[in-house]
What does this fold into?
Amino acid sequence: MPASSSQKIVMEVGSELPALKKTITQRQIDCYSGVRPKSIHTDVEWAKAKGFPAPLAQALMSTAYVSQMMVTWLGAGFIRGGKISASFIKPVIVGDTLTARAVIKSREEENGRPRVTVECWCENQHGVKTLVGSASGFADQLRT
It folds into this structure.
């Protein structure tokens, strides 16, 4: 849920959003797209045969974590007007712990509503970035 009215919502350019941390399990991967043979996501032996140490998380799972972080921060302003543009730059494997992070880059008006844009990324437990991009949503809390 978005921050309550008693909590101050960070909206200053350069501020970092509260991070979201998730440990990737095989069960999550299986639920995301279903278990299939000869899949680098759900077949351990197939993933190893393709050169990976374990099955890979689907790239869009990382996008879902960025979305969750944005919804927690902006609520309906992201649900009803959010945008994400992301590049997946490193694989995420079973057992990795991902942290979704974001820093506010800009605030602008769009059709009379304040839109806040962040630079976002996911990094694994070793500090290696796996996703980079940007996200934005309406910050109606800024309207006076």
In short: The beta strands are 20-23, 83-88, 97-110, 113-123, 129-138. The chain has a mean pLDDT of 92.
